[in-house]
Amino acid sequence: MNGVWILVSCLVCFGVSSHGLSGNGTSRPAVVNVGAIFTFDSTIGRVAKIAIQEAVKDVNSNSRTDVVAVIGPQSSVVAHTISHVANELQVPFLSFAATDPTLSSLQFPYFLRTTQSDLYQMTAIAEIVEYYGWKEVIAIFVDDDYGRNGVSALDDTLASRRCRISYKAGISPGATVTRGDIMDVLVKVALMESRVIVLHAYPTIGFMVLSVAHYLGMMGDDYVWISTDWLTGVLDSSSPLPQDTMDTMQGVLVLRQHTPDSENKRAFSSRWNKLTSGLLGLNSYALNAYDTVWLVAHAIDSFFNQGGIISFSNDTKLQSAEGSNLHLEAMSIFDGGPLLLKNLLQSDFVGLTGPFKFSPDKSLIRPAYDIINVIGTGFRRVGYWSNCSGLSILPPETFYSKPPNRSSSSQKLYSVVWPGNNVQKPRGWVFPNNGKQLRIGVPIRVSYREFVSQIQGTNNFKGFCIDVFTAAVNLLPYAVPHQFVPYGNGHENPSYTDMVKLITAGKFDGVVGDIAIVTNRTRIVDFTQPYVASGLVVVAPFQKLNSGGWAFLRPFSAQMWGVITIFFLFVGMVVWILEHRINDEFRGPPKQQLITILWFSLSTLFFAHRENTVSTLGRMVLIIWLFVVLIINSSYTASLTSILTVQQLYSPIKGIESLKETDEPIGFQVGSFAERYLEEIGIPKSRLVALGSPEQYATALQRGPAKGGVAAVVDERPYVELFLSNQCKFRIVVHLGLILYIKDAFLSFLVLKKIGKNGFCIKSCISFGCENKACQKEVAFPRDSPLAVDLSTAILTLSENGDLQRIHDKWLARSACSLDNAELESDRLHLRSFSGLFLICGIACFIALLIYFLQILRKFHRTSNAEVVSDGQTTSRSKRLQTLLSLIDEKADKSNRGSKRRKIDRSISDNIEIDLGRDSRWRERESQVSSQNEVL
């Protein structure tokens, strides 16, 4: 790298500046020297030289020897070395092109980046990868600080999105790299699974990589090439490029640092064209270099306004060795360095690149990139990326005044023409063409061999799971070479959890079998679409209930019968209390009243009570109670009808709680996760009995706990259904559901959201740390493997076209007995079903009694006061109690009611007398008329 020092000075003397820099000329030196470091013969160096010179003209500068700041270096590699010198000399270095993310660390306080860090560029690339749904990328990079640290940032940002770099291909940064070296690298890349390639290099090496890739046919269909902004630096400054060069990069996506459009930028662009006669284009690095000079000018202006003085002191730490030509003793420490650095970090102005201001981590605010698609003889912009809006087709400036919105629905890019002139989004991966077969682990089962079983004497397998896997693979648009690897000792079912762990250990590339999706497995492997519904169930013996002489008692549980009896008596007592004082039908001798209460209570069951209620409170209670009786009668009738007409099955096991409460042994299948589930819900391991076959299931259940068997068996539904297909003496009595055996509630939500429901599936392995030569010959299906996604799609296709059902019927068809009411359900009605009704009735009775006794107490209070007034002395407590009881028992005073009756009777009597008078007068007149007629 041919670097050169260019010393320029910004004129700030005499308080005069054509661009607004001013101050007290008497306190300022005539000239301030600022150095610059860049490479003349590089793409960035050529445009930076012109931009810096124009900026120098704009702020009036000329040369001297001592410097207070340095613009540069251009290279990230040089920046790492020279920043240590900057720290020692306290001279700020301002780089407009060093994008290495690690240069922003606290290790380099005097290094300022006036361009965007590659951290943001790699974040933009990661979001593009996520936007198109790819999960793996291959990184080709220059193996130096610039390339390694940039790719490391890409790896981190991809990992946060559950993506990864599957292969890293480093290229020597030296000038001795040949096309043969590049070809060796790309041949290895072509053998990889991923087809999404990120190229992070210098222009010379980058163009060589694209040229060799074009030669090898790696710029065609299925490939995706994403380049960092080194390519747009060349395209912007050197367009048009030769056609043969453009042909090697058709369909490539490129990033370019975004600079908002402005009048100043357009004016400078016009000025640039005149300076270069149109032979050199203006790129973002030139704009950064121009703004960097102005940043230094503004900071120095503020430095002098704050009373800063340019002075240097010797550094005793720097001593040249005897005979050395380095002359380190000539280097001086800038005494005003800390103040100048502070002013640089606090600068805030609008330059050609937009608002120029540093964030607390010394990065420029508002990082943004244009996303460019190389097409034909040029390129077009397909969108933008910014840390405010993510991917968008609108310029980032439109989002700065709005709240950040990074939702997936708001991410959008225009259509892209991909390599091979393809407008359809590439799949982004292919099955690796390296001659290696997938090692697919298959369990050697000794029971339920309908799911998977090994063909004796071979490594071939058959069964339901094998047929599903084979049919799904045959639907893929590419070949999947694989071999089945048996797992297990052949004497008992293997542990599926241990088998899954072998995927992460690298022994298997995947697993095919009847393996359920549970929490501890989802943490280390990924699943395809499940193809058999699963879930834990409890199987137990049953007995048939006949409709004997006491069948009429079965509709209600004993607790329900007891509550009904209590409420009948309770409501009868309440109505008797409310009616006793005012209703003659509820009065009489104690024996008669007790009979009345019992008769009234029981007769309401048939709505045949003959006693009328006359009080408002009594009628209210009776109406509510009759409604309760109506519901009870209807429920009893329906349940009894079902009991007498449908055969009933009965099992003493009602749920998982009934299993936990006893000390009876419980069976489970060897290797099943049911054992872990039962232990987690609190069942001691001593009660658990491992059973290895359906025959052992039947034997243990028939013997029962008393004869050394088990009370029930807990297993997954598919096995139980197969077991019940030829064992008609047992039934499913409890469904434990899906969520019950997923311990972590949050994780269970994620699992359910991802896979819809639990089931058997094909596993794909997860592999991390696969990079460079360590994994050249290794094939792995990592988390979010595209092969797993394609197999899931194939399984859904099998389900839609009916092939999955046909495979199911071939291996798991059930006999008639398993269709015979396989699940036990009790028709007995329990108290919990009617608790609301009884609660309403009880509340109504309580309110009525409360109102009634308040009325009694009110009357008692009046009576007591009247007795005190008449006797002139306070009555004793026993007498007051007798008075209260007599008030409760005495018949209500009907004097008012009698007076009203007498008034009504008198009115009727008067009316009768009037009518009689009218009748007598009418008869008298008739007689008179008759006499007159006789005379005539």
TrEMBL record:
Q: How does it sit in the membrane?
A: Multi-pass membrane protein
Please indicate if the UniProt record lists Ion transport as a keyword. Answer: yes
Transmembrane regions listed in the UniProt entry: 560-578, 620-644, 732-752, 834-854
Q: Which InterPro entries match?
A: ANF_lig-bd_rcpt (IPR001828), GABAb_receptor_plant_PBP1 (IPR044440), Glu/Gly-bd (IPR019594), GPCR_3 (IPR000337), Ionotropic_Glu_rcpt (IPR015683), Iontro_rcpt_C (IPR001320), Iontropic_Glu_rcpt_pln (IPR017103), Peripla_BP_I (IPR028082)
Give the signal peptide as a residue range, or say none if absent. Answer: 1-18
- Disulfide links within the chain: 728-817
Source species, domain of life: Eukaryota
Any GO CC annotation of this UniProt entry: membrane
Q: Which residues form the Ionotropic glutamate receptor C-terminal domain?
A: 439-814
Compartment list: Membrane
Keyword S-adenosyl-L-methionine annotated = no
Mind telling me which CDD domains this protein's record contains? GluR_Plant (cd13686), PBP1_GABAb_receptor_plant (cd19990)
Q: Which UniProt keywords apply?
A: Disulfide bond, Glycoprotein, Ion channel, Ion transport, Ligand-gated ion channel, Membrane, Receptor, Signal, Transmembrane, Transmembrane helix, Transport
Query: Which molecular function terms from Gene Ontology are attached?
Result: G protein-coupled receptor activity; ligand-gated monoatomic ion channel activity
Role of this protein: Glutamate-gated receptor that probably acts as non-selective cation channel.
**What family classification does the UniProt entry report for this protein?**
Belongs to the glutamate-gated ion channel (TC 1.A.10.1) family.
| Protein name as catalogued | Glutamate receptor
Q: Which organism is it from?
A: Anisodus tanguticus
